[in-house]
Specification:
The chain is an alpha/beta fold. It folds into two domains: about 170 residues, P-loop containing nucleotide triphosphate hydrolases (Rossmann fold, 3-Layer(aba) Sandwich); about 70 residues, no CATH class. Helix content is about 40%, strand content about 25%. It contains ten helices and nine strands. A six-stranded mixed beta sheet has the order 5-6-7-3-8-9, with helices on both faces. It has a three-stranded antiparallel beta sheet with strand order 2-1-4. β8 and β9 form a beta hairpin. α5 packs across α7. It is globular. The structure holds adenosine-5'-triphosphate (ATP) and magnesium ion.
Length: about 240
């Protein structure tokens, strides 16, 4: 049997003050009176296996650790302990605008991100029209600095770059929610196509409707732990039950 796309073993991670930064004089002075800020445990002994070709949802209330886990899987954050094994190339579509350079134009951001993903200039020239076409951003939009983009335009650009790069693992953290209805529908079709071609999808969304429509397996996170793993319908039931009193 082939190895899973993602194998996470006993992963823990805490944010420290240096990760969040000291933003005010008051915080700086407080630091003196209390000594070092305590580390904040955000992922606690996570074990998770995601099979190749699955479309996997991660559910959980705000602050439960979903985005942090995705950043660990993407290699952006190194866990304090535990092991993350990934088979294949990941294209992460994380928080809005993440990875985009605000001062550069849309076109230059495409070139930059494709270069960082390891594509050669010839391949980038091949992908460029596909990315532009999928994003439905106009020529003048793509020549504009990304700092002038609306949130939906940023989502269009990052998602279009990620899917054009033909990843083995596509990670999507909520960003599609800001796209308009037409673009969302198109993205879901594209995600299904990529999944049918064998790629693994990891999808974070608070929309139960979208999770049920798209995913075939899921887990629920609670306060930095995985409290349920398995069937997508059961996961959605457990997630929504948390909010019923
Ligand atoms: N840069 C940071 N510095 C310190 N703490 C952080 C940082 N980023 C996230 N956290 C903390 O980590 C915890 C988990 O955050 P995370 O963003 O992973 O949650 P989430 O499940 O993605 O939530 P949401 O549904 O709101 O997106 C939260 O308590 C949050 O305050
Ligand atoms: Mg999040």
């Amino acid at each position: 049997m082939s190895k899973p796309a993602i194998q996470i073993t006993d992963v823990s991670f805490s944010f420290r003050v240096s990760d969040s930064g000291i933003n005010s004089l008051r915080e700086w002075l407080m630091r003196g009176s209390r000594g070092l800020f305590p580390a904040k445990p955000v992922l606690k002994h996570i074990d998770l296996q995601i099979e190749k070709g699955s479309c996997f949802a991660i559910l959980g209330r705000n602050g439960s650790g979903k985005s942090t886990l995705l950043r660990v899987i993407s290699g952006i954050i190194t866990p304090d302990n535990g092991k993350v094994e990934v088979q294949g190339r990941i294209a992460p579509v994380l928080s809005l605008g993440a990875g985009l350079e605000p001062e550069l134009t849309g076109y230059d951001n495409i070139r930059l991100l494709c270069t960082l993903m390891g594509f050669r200039p010839k391949e980038i020239r091949f992908f460029m029209p596909q990315i532009a076409q999928f994003s439905e951003l106009s020529e003048s939009d793509l020549r504009m600095q990304v700092k002038r983009y609306s949130t939906g335009m940023m989502a269009r650009l990052t998602f279009s770059i990620a899917v054009a790069s033909q990843p083995d693992i596509l990670i999507i953290d909520e960003v599609l929610a800001v796209g308009d209805a037409g673009f969302q529908e198109k993205c879901y079709r594209r995600i299904r196509e990529i999944n049918q071609q064998g790629a693994t999808i990891i999808f974070v969304s608070h929309s139960i409707h979208d999770v049920l429509m798209l995913c075939n397996q899921a887990c629920v996170m609670n306060d930095g732990r995985i409290t349920f793993f398995g069937d997508v319908k059961d996961s959605c039931d457990i997630y929504t039950r948390q909010f019923q009193t």
